[in-house]
Amino acid sequence: MGDHPCPDANAAVARYRAGLAGQHQSVRTSPAARRLHSAPQTASGRLPCPAKGQLELEVLESAALSDIGRVSEVIRACQKLGVRFALDDFGTGYASLAYLRRLPADVLKIDQTFVHDMLSDSDDRSIVEGVVSLARTFRRQVIAEGMETPEHGALLIAMGCDLAQGYCVARPMSAAALPGWIEQYSVPPLWNAAARGQFPSEDLSLFSAAIHHWGWCEQVEQACLKTDAGDTDSTLERDSTQCVFGKWFHGQGYQQYGQFD
Hints:
about 260 residues, alpha/beta, TIM Barrel, 2 domains, 13 helices, 6 strands, globular, EAL_sf, Cyclic-di-GMP_PDE-like, EAL domain-containing protein, cyclic-guanylate-specific phosphodiesterase activity
């Protein structure tokens, strides 16, 4: 988004309103924080009343922190017009709790670099869990970016993050294709199972390891169905001590649950 985003955004909102009641349009702003300064006047003059409340502007965390006082004023002014704000790529900047408290953004979007490896990287998993907890504390909505597999989604649900975007949900598509996609979309069964469970924070590493193990079992099943030995998946881990679950079982898992032997 540059200085004149609203005509295109308005057109998109109008298209969505025609067949998708209750949906909103999210637009990424320019990384330059100065571009935000005219946002209230632009939104007020160009947003038709029906579109107010259905437009969300995304601003990079780094841009918001570069001029936090002015950006906070702009966000509040836009919110009075019914425009929501999201902090994009959250976690890649240097936002402290004090900064987050001052920024009245409605949504925190967890950067995909943390989401991508959270199944196998305990540090990334802790960061994602921390941002979800932070959002809950400050009563902000949280969205995970870069969710590429159903397993990622299951772990996010277990953490309490029930909104995400990524190739696992859908690849980029035109506005015209959206209604058809919504009609045919079905939620992966794994997500329903995760939603029914209650996972304390200390058990998330077990849940992550279990997800990897389920995936490994599926790989084994597929390998058994192949008649040609040369077609066997070369990525299939055969050492039970080196797979993700095995490393967890002989390491953190034993430390955490070894007393139950």
